[in-house]
Amino acid sequence: MLTTDQATARAAALIDAALKAGADAADVLYVGDASTGVQVRLGALEDVQRSEGEEIGLRFFVGRRSASTSSSDLSDDALAAMVERASAMAREAPEDVHAGLAPAELLLREAGPDVAGDDRQDPAPAELKQLALAIEDAARSVEGVTNSEGAGISAGRSVVALATSHGFCRGYATSGYSGSASVIAGTGGAMQRDYASHSVRWFEDLDDADAIGRLAGERAVARVGPGKLSSGSMPVIFDPRVGGSLISHLLGAITGSAIARKTSFLLGREDEPIFAPYITITDDPHRPRGLRSKPFDGEGLPTRPRKLVADGRLTGWLLDSASARQLGLQPTGHATRGIGGAPGASATNVHLEPGRLSQSELIGDIKRGVYVTELIGQGVNPVTGDYSRGASGFIIEDGEIAGPVAEITIAGNLLDIFRTLTPASDLEFRRAINVPTLRIEGMTVAGA
């Protein structure tokens, strides 16, 4: 894997080669990854993996025609052949009036923010193994845990470099660590499984092994002996580990491609209140050590913190340059991309601002409801907003979380879900999308 300086130099050299081959414009993306993962089960080492890879991609423009090529071979001969292929392909490609690089006047020109994305650590496999064993030991020590699906630790680093033919050439490095455990409680037909995990940018921020393991064990034990729940319309509470999925549906609906193709349930609603007036949802690409923090987007535009929802209303769309041109707007610095093909758009570190009620106050007046801790399936229609997913969790009775429940379905429409959403005060920053406990009114629950 190249260093950041080596990667930016290689990307710049490939731009020069593309221009010499007749490109009117070009951009190059390099991504290098190296990771180590350790898995254990029942107190024994199960697997150790080490992977390293790098790839470089070229977009070659001839007028409004373009083609993309990529290679994991970074030798001079391989890159020369890649430029030659891209040139030939671009000249045969159909025209796309919206294709092209980001506007030059919008490119990041200053140094850009330090998002503290790389701790430059490289823990040894032996250290990772001991942590994984400690996680599983803690999970298996919880009374009621009867088996283990294993525990694991991973550590990795990535280098990203982007160069364009109109003057952008930057790179950055990130690190990443995660720990997890999945265990089983109960016996026979009454067995239930659950898990716990934690992902961070800096190794020192990873939860203690005991905390990860015990949480997995306690969650599994709490699910043993699920009861029955009669069907009906009732409040549904989303635990923070699943509540972020509701916001992910919002993010998908406000991407430029969905709006330009008219495939979003939020199309034409940008001037309407979507949430209650006290709801604010923020995208912050500059959060230090954030899981998706980055100084520039996939087209070289500066990233900036932004309120996606303010006072319950949408503030606009997430736009890459192509979708912005289609909509007659400016790109928003949300372009994201892989090695091959054109950029899309997505958010970075997103959070929903907490409310004033504690979790217990949020559920205190619920006579009958559901506290959801797991969602199953992908029954969401992005065009209509219709929502129907399998779920499990706990019954709420008379304002208290009671026994577990499984094999239920919760349904509604995302517009109604957003409109009645109430956040608790327990926001924690642990994921890419962070939300407090959420309450949704009047969802349809299909039980036994």
From TrEMBL:
Residues 286-305 are annotated as: Disordered. Residues 26-90 form the Metalloprotease TldD/E N-terminal domain. Residues 122-223 form the Metalloprotease TldD/E central domain. InterPro entries: Metalloprtase-TldD/E_C, Metalloprtase-TldD/E_cen_dom, Metalloprtase-TldD/E_N, PmbA, TldD/PmbA_N, TldD/PmbA_sf. It comes from the Bacteria. Residues 231-447 form the Metalloprotease TldD/E C-terminal domain. Pfam families: PmbA_TldD_1st (PF01523), PmbA_TldD_2nd (PF19290), PmbA_TldD_3rd (PF19289). Belongs to the peptidase U62 family. PANTHER family: METALLOPROTEASE PMBA. This is TldD/PmbA family protein. It comes from Sphingosinicella rhizophila.
